[in-house]
């Protein structure tokens, strides 16, 4: 599977012509497990929105609401600035 993913030509270099590199990548990739994303439950989100102090967490609350109900893509949410929000 690794070889099929790596045979893509990148910068005009065909990786399939380097069998030692493919073997090295296979050896170093053994046992790798991706990290699981932490997911908040609805009750945790409701508790945060109702109990967290507005003076300290207002921007985080706005970001949370926009992320859930604002139909933002991940990159749009990351690039969001205070100037983008209109009242």
UniProtKB/TrEMBL annotation:
<dbReference type="InterPro" id="IPR013762">
    <property type="entry name" value="Integrase-like_cat_sf"/>
</dbReference>
<protein>
    <recommendedName>
        <fullName>Tyr recombinase domain-containing protein</fullName>
    </recommendedName>
</protein>
């Amino acid at each position: 599977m690794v070889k099929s993913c790596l045979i893509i030509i990148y910068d005009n270099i065909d990786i399939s012509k380097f069998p030692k590199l493919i073997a090295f990548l296979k050896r170093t990739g053994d046992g790798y497990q991706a990290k699981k994303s932490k997911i908040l439950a609805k009750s945790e989100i409701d508790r945060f929105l109702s109990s967290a102090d507005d003076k300290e967490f207002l921007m985080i609350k706005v970001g949370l609401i926009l992320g859930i109900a604002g139909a933002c893509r991940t990159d749009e949410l990351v690039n969001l600035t205070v100037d983008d929000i209109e009242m």
